[in-house]
Amino acid sequence: IRLLACADILVTDHTSLSLFYLLLGRPIVFYRDSSVEYEPGALMLELQKAAHLISGIENIQADIKQGFHRFDAQKAQAAADKVCSFPGRAWERYEEEIYETLSLERYSRI
């Protein structure tokens, strides 16, 4: 989890780590296992709306490029807002805490 703030993109499957990463507002490549079923309204479904979805790793380099190219900050923000269960802008406090804990310079999205 310490390296989340350093990563430019996350390649992941069904894991809570991806929900934390979503709060950083960066691209995610999500491996979708067709055998996994989600309940309506599941947070992983919200994550998938903001991620570049893949079903295999055969073309992972191209998929990573697509993850950057197709990244939609508004979709990521909408999903992050649903993932965050605290009122207000708790995700901003979370992001700030990550950088402070790791003694890193704040990442600029501009």
Number of strands: 3
Mean pLDDT: 83
Kindly report how far apart the N and C termini lie: 24 Å
Strand content: 5-15%
Shape summary: globular
Overall helicity: 40-55%
Task: Tell me the number of helical segments per DSSP (H or I, 4 or more residues long).
Answer: 5
| Strand arrangement, major sheet | 1-2-3
H/E topology pattern: EHEHEHHH
Outline the low-pLDDT stretches: none
Secondary-structure content class = mainly alpha
What's the Cα radius of gyration? Answer: 14 Å
Task: Describe the main β-sheet briefly.
Answer: 3 strands, parallel
Explain the overall architecture.
With 110 residues, the protein is mainly alpha-helical. It has five helices and three strands; from the N terminus they run E-H-E-H-E-H-H-H. The protein has helices spanning 16-22, 43-50, 60-69, 73-83, 90-101; strands at residues 10-12, 28-31, 52-54. The protein has a three-stranded parallel beta sheet, sandwiched between helices. Strand 1 (10-12), helix 1 and strand 2 (28-31) form a beta-alpha-beta unit. Helix 2 (43-50) packs antiparallel against helix 4 (73-83). The longest helix has 12 residues, at 90-101. The two termini are 24 Å apart. The mean pLDDT is 83.
Quick structural overview:
The protein has helices at residues 16-22, 43-50, 60-69, 73-83, 90-101, and strands at 10-12, 28-31, 52-54. The protein has 110 residues and is mainly α.
Topology, element by element:
Elements: E1 10-12, H1 16-22, E2 28-31, H2 43-50, E3 52-54, H3 60-69, H4 73-83, H5 90-101
Parallel strand pairs: 1-2, 2-3
